[in-house]
Amino acid sequence: MAFIEVDEDNFEAILDQEFEKKQTVILKFGSEYCDPCHALECELEDVDDEFEDVSVLNIDTDESPSLAEQFDVYQLPTMIIYRSRGSLLYHGEGVILAQDINAFIGK
Known about the structure:
It is built from 4 helices and 5 strands. The chain is α/β, with parallel strands linked by helices and 107 residues long. The chain has a single domain (4-101), classed as Glutaredoxin (3-Layer(aba) Sandwich), CATH 3.40.30. The model has no long low-confidence stretch (mean pLDDT 93).
């Protein structure tokens, strides 16, 4: 399964749709020019491929700076994991290994 690309215009609608379909939603904030962001993408691909109840929303901070500000994103990459809308499991910067992401989401 591929990541879902979101921006400031479609973020809320897609987030609502994903929470209706999935148990866990991961927000990945990054930039096309950020090498650590690409490393985190590789780890998240493993998680996304392994678990059907996880959805990954990809947000490019260059294209959606107000979303980065809304979610207090100051460094790239930043990953935020929600179990359900309003139920925050994790908010952190840097590259996280797939096994650690699985631990955050309880898999």
